[in-house]
Amino acid sequence: MDSVILKGRKNGYEITLNASANFDDNMVDLNRLLEKLSEAEQESDSDLGFYLKTGSRLLNDAQMKRIYDLFDKYKGFSIADLQADVADLAAIAAAEKVNHIHVEMATIRSGQEVSYESDVLFLGNLHPNGVLKSRGNIFVMGDCSGILCAGFPDNEDAIIVGDISNVPQIRISDTVEIINKKNQQFSKSTVALINDLHVLDFDTLDHLSSLRPKLYRKMEDNL
Amino acid sequence: MAISLVITSGKGGVGKSTTAANLGTALALMNRRVCMIDLDIGLRNLDVIMGLSNRIIYDIVDVVMGRAQLHQALVKDKRFDDKLYLLPAAQNSDKNVLTPANVVDIVNQLRPDFDYILLDCPAGIEQGFQNAIAGADGAIVICTPEIPSVSDADRVVGILEQTDMKLAPRLIINRINRQMMNSGDTMDVDEITKHLSIGLLGIVFEDSNVILASNRGVPVVMDPEDNASQGYRNIARRVLGESVPLMTLKEQKPTFFQKLFGRHQHKH
Ligand SMILES: Nc1ncnc2c1ncn2[C@@H]1O[C@H](COP(=O)(O)OP(=O)(O)OP(=O)(O)O)[C@@H](O)[C@H]1O
Ligand SMILES: [Mg+2]
Prior knowledge:
The complex is a heterodimer of chains A (223) and B (268).
Chain A: E1 4-9, E2 12-17, H1 23-40, E3 48-53, H2 61-72, E4 77-83, H3 89-99, E5 102-104, E6 107-108, E7 113-116, E8 120-122, E9 125-126, E10 131-134, E11 138-140, E12 143-144, E13 147-150, E14 160-161, E15 169-172, E16 175-178, E17 190-194, E18 200-204, H4 208-211, H5 213-222
Parallel strand pairs in A: 2-3, 3-4, 5-8, 6-9, 7-10, 8-11, 9-12, 10-13, 11-14, 13-15
Antiparallel strand pairs in A: 1-2, 14-17, 15-16, 17-18
Helix pairs in contact in A: 1-2
Chain B: E1 3-8, H1 16-29, E2 34-38, H2 46-50, H3 60-64, H4 70-73, E3 75-76, E4 84-87, H5 100-110, E5 116-120, H6 127-134, E6 138-143, H7 147-162, E7 170-176, H8 178-182, H9 189-196, E8 199-205, H10 208-216, H11 227-239, H12 256-261
Parallel strand pairs in B: 1-5, 1-6, 2-4, 2-5, 6-7, 7-8
Antiparallel strand pairs in B: 3-4
Bound molecules: adenosine-5'-triphosphate (ATP) and magnesium ion (MG).
């Protein structure tokens, strides 16, 4: 019953559905909790209002309906309020965007600048004088002969992964590097990043676990 | 009802007006009714290339300002019966008097009387360019096998893709020097087409007769034997929907030295 938390409030009960748990588990635990409460409240015939909180999880219509249907089974129980913690829904939407990786197949032509809030997996063509910009990381597999900007404007943890042999210039956060093929060998597993000395540096993907452990773990989780 | 096509390039001097004149003439030779509109206000050329300069009475700005009726401003090319007309640009008026809406209006008035309307676009991507693309159902993008020209064409294709035209843009690669292309000194046709990723409408070779013809006011396409002329004729046939194979890049007659050094051999 750990995925739901019950608290008393002066005008009823407050139940928090732990957003880090699976929603189905939330429902099982909620059902069990309500069962117990209804046994305890059998004697009293006054109606009980519940204040439900879903933390950082935004419920969809089907999920909401399941909760309302569940409460309908218990006589005298009703939902006084059901809402997520986060007041600003736009912020959640933005966060979702950041967590998820955008797959881009387009051609970015000369003079065009395309920006993303999220990480980008770029499978398209970036032409000379085109710009691909992201607040997060950029993974390139397509042909890139334009400028890549990761971590724009101030995310120093951002990285650029992929063969950037034909890219004239990369930027991460506020650093800029003019690419010189002569001085540097690039391959599909090249990683460009800002190192501890705040200098734009190159490494390879097999060192990602030590270079960016958090990102590494996140990527492993998603695979 | 006419189809209107803008001939554009971004970069200046790559052959937009030459293409408009020769494509227009080729289509007229194939019995289509064609109206060419010169939108390069202040730097009009199309009339010169067509040899029609001395017959201009009114121009497009006169029409827009209400000083002339549209039909009064159309210059008829007498070599082609009733098939070929030119609406000239103004030579000495403020180029900002023309708006996209004016061009759309004029094109729509002309549509019932023609099969093709060709809009000769000024270089650049400013107002004059915006005017020209506003009136077009589709675009023909001209570039030469030089990187600055291909880069500008790329810029233009990007803009065209964002304005929803009825027809997808198509490419003409102009001023191809066979020898340089075969020896890898310029980007080749495949590379350019692949890079710009738009359909290839045709290629035209570098040909000094183009310049001679423009000077004489007789578009080169009127000479069926000429090399560039064949390029333009093939382009016209493709515009009409025929499928015509691309002209070969092989040198016709390798010179003695080319034979000696094997440079005439085709790359592929
Ligand atoms: N295939 C060709 N072979 C040789 N010369 C050519 C060819 N095509 C065009 N030219 C020459 O190139 C010059 C520029 O051509 P043109 O005026 O058609 O270009 P444009 O793109 O209309 O220029 P602008 O941007 O100034 O309007 C002219 O002198 C023309 O004769
Ligand atoms: Mg011109």
